[in-house]
Design goal:
354 residues; alpha+beta; 5-stranded antiparallel sheet; two-stranded antiparallel sheet; 11% strand; elongated; disordered N terminus
Length: 354
């Protein structure tokens, strides 16, 4: 049996090997120079024809009014000793990464895409604007089923299977290439929503609309339970108020019907007394309902989360573009590195064959 000898490469041997590689690359300098020249030319043409991208950025702060209240702090202390006082039951629904994921959800993105906006005097869906500047409709010109898709018809109705499939692909592409939602500082409740695209009008319109939709959904969800309670109390208050008005009107009608009632006939006083009792009872009930209604409205105002916009996108948007010099420099280094690696791999492969 042949004995296999395993030994480590010393630093001297590695230096010798690197010297051999450099000497070999120097001998192939003409090929490397030609490759670099081709890379510079490709970088120049790439920078010339590459369209710039426009970035729309919104930053805003979220403050949950119930999060820092005294009751919330007492609930936190009580939970440490195993006592639950029921404060802030839904406070964590949109905390942390949940709100970020809400921005990327299909429901929010689709709702923003199906919103009609004014693009330089032309009414158009944001989705149609996206399809136009990405030349997707031209790519669909050979597909009869796709070429006839009209998203205006599905804006307020149920989407067809074809419409739903197209929107699904657009939502996926926007989540990967266009929409970025981050939290710059983990300790602060500040969100940054960034939309990047080749169309300046789309970037701003989509950024504005999705921020509006998500913020409205956030507020309505946080205050949904209190709004339902207020609606119930308001309905009960209106009902009792109608009954009170009916009782007062009945008392007045009975008085008008018998202006000079005989005091000896007690039976004539019974209808009026019934109406008076109803009016007094409804007055007491109405007083309590109005008090509870006002307390519920005050509580709802305290629970209302504060959304403070810090920065909103304005024209002209920040433009990201590759200059011709940047393209040429990048092409030079990429070509030089690629040619060097190719030549070294080719030399090693040929030496193995020999």
């Amino acid at each position: 049996m042949a004995e296999t000898v395993n030994r480590e490469i010393t630093l001297k041997e590695l230096a010798v090997k690197l010297t051999e590689w450099l000497s070999y690359l120097k001998s192939k300098w003409l090929i490397i120079v030609l490759g670099c020249a081709v890379g510079v030319g490709l970088g120049y043409f790439y920078a010339s024809y590459k369209k710039p991208k426009y970035v729309a950025v919104s930053t805003f702060a979220l403050e949950d009014a119930s999060g820092g209240s005294g009751l919330g702090q007492m609930a936190g202390l009580a939970s440490m000793v195993g006592i639950d006082i029921g404060a802030g039951g839904t406070g964590g629904v949109f905390q942390g990464d949940n709100l970020i994921e809400l921005y990327k959800s299909r429901t929010m993105v689709q709702k923003a895409l199906l919103t009609e906006m004014d693009f330089q005097g032309k009414k158009q869906l944001i989705l149609e604007r996206y399809l136009d500047f990405n030349n997707l409709k031209q790519k669909w010109s050979t597909e009869l089923a796709l070429n006839r898709v009209d998203f205006q018809s599905g804006k307020d109705l149920h989407l067809t299977r074809t419409q739903d499939s197209i929107i699904g692909e657009v939502v996926k592409a926007i989540g990967i290439n266009n929409l970025v939602v981050t939290k710059p500082d983990k300790k602060l409740s500040i969100l940054k929503v960034q939309v990047t695209s080749k169309d300046e009008l789309f970037s701003k319109a989509f950024n504005d609309q999705i921020v509006k939709n998500v913020n409205e959904f956030y507020v309505s969800t946080k205050t949904k339970k209190s709004m339902q309670n207020i609606a119930v109390l308001q309905h009960q208050t209106d009902s009792v108020k109608r009954e009170l008005n009916r009782a007062l009107s009945g008392m007045a009608s009975l008085t008008d019907a018998n202006p000079n009632a005989n005091p000896a006939r007690q039976i004539l006083k019974v209808p009026s007394q019934k109406k008076q009792v109803d009016a007094q009872a409804n007055t007491a009930i109405l007083t309590e309902l109005v008090k509870n209604l006002e307390m519920s409205k005050l509580s709802q105002q305290k629970e209302m989360p504060l959304i403070q916009m810090i920065d909103a996108p304005v024209f002209p948007l920040n433009k990201i573009s590759t200059t011709k010099i940047q393209g040429m420099v990048a092409g030079f280094f990429i070509a030089c590195f690629s040619m060097s690696v190719f030549l070294l791999v080719r030399r090693g492969f040929l030496s193995m064959i020999r």
